[in-house]
Amino acid sequence: MPTTMTVAASPQAWRRPPAVTQAPPMASPVSSDLLPAIGPRMSYGRDEEIFGEGERAEYIYQVLEGAVRTCRFQGDGRRQIEEFHLAGEYFGLETGADHTSSAEAVGSATVLLIRRSTLADLASRDLTVSGRLLELTMKGLRRTQDHVIMLGRKGACERVAAFLLDFAKRTCAVGSISLPMSRQDIADYLGLTIETVSRTLSQFESDGVIALPDRRSVTVVAARRLEAFCG
What we know:
- The chain is built from 6 helices and 13 strands.
- It is of the alpha+beta class.
- The protein has 2 domains: 141 residues, Jelly Rolls (Sandwich); 75 residues, Winged helix-like DNA-binding domain superfamily/Winged helix DNA-binding domain (Arc Repressor Mutant, subunit A), CATH 1.10.10.
């Protein structure tokens, strides 16, 4: 069940072939027509791997419905989530021949697969397509840089506050929005423990910055105070 916020395993593991679906793309605040929608649509279940780290990067992917996380697994088995990709957003763009991370469905998700070789051929003949590929690459780089800055914040309060504000901005929240990821996912994204994330949210609630009606919902009561934690 997705989390609601109101604003005021190994990379090479075998996986079953995903189901092919013809469901139409879901509406999204992110433009869904940056690249030609040419390719099959695949359905994935919760926590199902879409591609693994080190596998050949044959496709570029677009989330049509649901959410996807990209992550890496460290030598000791710990997981670092690099990004959450929401409906309308692209992922799996690589500069090399192989994937540098794994991708998994956060919950039920539908994904469009666009063959990389097809896009390369189109980009060689169409400046619009090549420009959009560059735009997506630069956007991904900026997101990575922002994440590194977030991880460089010293306090858990800064990281959790920045995450909530960023997610609200990305989804253009004006009322109630869904956070499909679990608190463990949030912890692995912020480089914290789940206990620290839960304790920080509880502290925000005690301070009157947010309200926690239940474990699956967050209400931002004082947005300016939340922003103040980010410096």
